[in-house]
Write a structure and sequence with these properties.
- The protein has helices spanning 3-8, 24-37, 48-61, 95-99, 120-124, 139-148, 163-176, 192-203, 227-242, 259-265, 277-281, 284-287, 296-314, and strands at 12-16, 41-45, 67-73, 81-85, 105-106, 109-110, 130-134, 153-157, 180-185, 211-216, 248-252, 272-275.
- By secondary structure, it is of the alpha/beta class.
- It folds into 2 domains: 12-77 and 136-314, Aldolase class I (TIM Barrel, Alpha-Beta Barrel), CATH 3.20.20; 81-134, Alpha-Beta Plaits (2-Layer Sandwich).
- The strands form 3 sheets. The protein has an 8-stranded parallel barrel, surrounded by 6 helices.
- Helix 7 (163-176) links the parallel strand 8 (153-157) and strand 9 (180-185).
- The longest helix has 19 residues, at 296-314.
C-alpha cells in the first residue's frame, strides 16, 4: 500500500511529534506507542536523527506499513521557533516551568531540543522575559539527506507573510521531491482570501491529489479536550473544503477527541486528522518513564489511552 492509498480511504490519523521536537528518545517512544495503537502516518522534525528514531519506534511496534513526513517552514513560522529567556528580566518565578507541555523548561532554563515554539511560556511570563528566535532549516542542506533515507512526505509550513520566501522554498521542495507534499497553513496572519489564494497558487502546478492541505486552526493549541478548543481547526477546514480543491484535507491545530465529531456535525469530510499537543499530553506521564519500552504494564496502560484517541477519530471520519 502507498501513502496515497491510505489517504484515499479517508480514515487517516496522523501523529504530530512536533516540527520543533528534536528529542529522539521521546519521538521513538511516541511512534512506537501510536504505531501499536493503529496510527500509520507520523509527522517529524526534519532531522536525520529524528527520522532514525521514528524508524526504531516502528521496528519496536513491528509495523512496516507506516509513512513518515518531515516538516519544514519559513522564517518566523511558529513551528520553527525556539524560546529564549532574557535573564536580566527574569525574576525566577518559574511559572514557565510548569506551563511547558514539553517539559522543555527547568528553573527557567530552556532545553532547546524539546522546545516546539508553542508560545505558552511567553504568555505566562509576568515580566516579558521570554521571546522566540526562528530556527528554520536550510532546505538544501537537510532535504537531500532525508530524501535518501526514504521519507514519504514533506510538509511545508506556509504561515508567514513573506510571499517570496514561501514560493521560493516551495519551488525548491518540488524540484527535489516527487512524492506527496503537504501544505500546513492557517488564518492566524492571513485573511481568508489570502489564505485560500496562497494554497491555490501553491498547488497550481501540481497534479491532482498529490498534495495534502493541513488546515491549521490554532497551531499547537490542543491541550484541552473540548469543542471550543477544536472549533477553529474545523472552521479552517471548512474554508478549504468549500473551495473543492483537488487535494487531501487534514484538520489540525487544536485537535482532540471532539474534532471528528464536530467536523461531522458541520458537514466537514476530511481525509484525516492530525493530532499533536493533545496526543502527546495524554500519554506524557508514561512516555516520561525511562522503562517505558521495557515495562509491558506501563506500555499497555499508555496503549489503551492512545487506542481510545484513535477510536474517537475513526468512529466519525
Amino acid at each position: 500500500m502507498m501513502l496515497k492509498d491510505l489517504l484515499d480511504k479517508g480514515k487517516c490519523f496522523k501523529l504530530v511529534c512536533g516540527a520543533g521536537n528534536e528529542d529522539a528518545n521521546e519521538v521513538e517512544k511516541l511512534v512506537a506507542l501510536y504505531a501499536k495503537a493503529g496510527c500509520r502516518f507520523f509527522d517529524l522534525s526534519a532531522s536525520q536523527e529524528i527520522v532514525d528514531a521514528a524508524k526504531k519506534g516502528l521496528l519496536y511496534a513491528n509495523v512496516n506499513d507506516a509513512y513518515l513526513c518531515v516538516s519544514v517552514g519559513i522564517k518566523n513560522d511558529p513551528h520553527v521557533n525556539k524560546a529564549v529567556v532574557d535573564y536580566d528580566k527574569c525574576i525566577s518565578c518559574y511559572s514557565c516551568d510548569s506551563i511547558c507541555p514539553q517539559n522543555a523548561i527547568k528553573y527557567a532554563k530552556i532545553k532547546k531540543q524539546r522546545c516546539i515554539g508553542c508560545g505558552r511560556c511567553a504568555k505566562i511570563c509576568p515580566k516579558g522575559a521570554i521571546s522566540y528566535i526562528s530556527e528554520e532549516k536550510d532546505l538544501k542542506e537537510v532535504l537531500p539527506l532525508l530524501i535518501e533515507k526514504g521519507i514519504d512526505c514533506i510538509e511545508f509550513h506556509a504561515m508567514g507573510l513573506d510571499d517570496n520566501e514561501v514560493f521560493e522554498k516551495w519551488k525548491y521542495i518540488n524540484q527535489v521531491f516527487d512524492g506527496m507534499l503537504s501544505i500546513c497553513s492557517a488564518r492566524r496572519y492571513l485573511s481568508d482570501e489570502k489564505f485560500i489564494g496562497r494554497i491555490k497558487q501553491l498547488i497550481s502546478e501540481r497534479k491532482p491529489y498529490t498534495t495534502i492541505v493541513q488546515a491549521d486552526g490554532f497551531p499547537m493549541s490542543g491541550g484541552k479536550d473540548d469543542y471550543k478548543t477544536t472549533l477553529q481547526a474545523v472552521a479552517t477546514a471548512e474554508i478549504v473544503q468549500n473551495e473543492k480543491l483537488p487535494v487531501y484535507l487534514f484538520i489540525s491545530g487544536g485537535t482532540n477527541t471532539k474534532t471528528a465529531a464536530l467536523a461531522k456535525m458541520c458537514g466537514i469530510e476530511p481525509n484525516g486528522i492530525s493530532v499533536g499537543s493533545y496526543a502527546r499530553k495524554i500519554v506524557k506521564q508514561y512516555i516520561a518513564r525511562d522503562d517505558f519500552l521495557t515495562n509491558k504494564e506501563i506500555f499497555n496502560k499508555a496503549l489503551k489511552v492512545a487506542e481510545e484517541l484513535l477510536l474517537s477519530t475513526f468512529s466519525f471520519i
